[in-house]
Amino acid sequence: MYRELSVEHSLFMIDPILVEEFQQYSQDYHDLQPAFNLTHSEVDTWAAAFNHWLLLISQEECLIIDHIKTFSHTVNIFCIQEIEKTEMYLMILDRFTRKERFVVACFLTDYVHAWKRKIMEKHAYDEMLMRNLCTKTYYLVENIELSQMTPELQIILENQAKLVKLLVKEIQEDCAIECCIEKSIIQAKAFLRYRSPNKNDGFTT
Fold first, then answer.
1. Dihedrals φ, ψ of 39, to 5°?
2. I need a surface site. Which of 119, 127, 173, 190 has the fewest CB within 10 A?
3. Is 156 within a domain?
4. What domain range is 56 assigned to?
């Protein structure tokens, strides 16, 4: 499914070459993929991992969020911004190569999606969850003029707003984002050590 990714799946303004680079890493690490159907379908889960990887290379590539996605993807952009605020985000940039950040991005997608699913189930947002799981075009939705608003898109935007409020509350009450990143780093280290047992990854054990 990663082969179906395109520039349109990105929340950032990017060149097509970055899509090709991510797809190449997906082939290189063919034994690794994000967990599907936690909050999204397979192709949209790959899109989430792609956007997490873009976040992890955004400083060196000088990437910025695409303005046509800001309104329609408030949940994803909120999570990206919260990840970027943490000290562990800088640790990833310092300790992992550009290619290795693909591994981190896959595990980060797993933990962030598991966290969001837990919150949706806790607050009985089953309809929102099922809607996300049933679509294969979640990341292709862009901002639209109000005159073009359909009832279905209105529901999507309302659900986004509700979920952001819940995520803000959860983040204020605990360190959920930091926990997601920390677990992702641990998993990525273990995976990379398994793949290259003689490599010194620079982390203390």
1. -130, -10
2. 173
3. yes
4. 2-195
- For tokens 């360190």, what's the residue? 175
Q: Is residue 201 a part of any domain in this protein?
A: no
d(Cα 64, Cα 27) in Å, to the nearest integer? 26
CA 197 remoteness from chain centre: 28
Provide DSSP, 71-110.
Answer: TTTHHHHHHHHHHHHSHHHHHHHHHS-TTHHHHHHHHHHH
Residue 172 domain-assigned?
yes
Domain count for the chain: 1
Could you tell me which residues are beta bridge partners of residue 65? 12
> Considering just the CA atoms, what is the radius of gyration of the chain in Å?
17
Residue 200 has pLDDT above 60, yes or no: no
Q: Which residues pair with 12 in a beta bridge?
A: 65
Mean pLDDT of 93-120: 97
pLDDT at 148 over 90: no
Report DSSP letters for 11-50, one per residue.
SB---HHHHHHHHHHHHHTTT--PPTTSSS-HHHHHHHHH
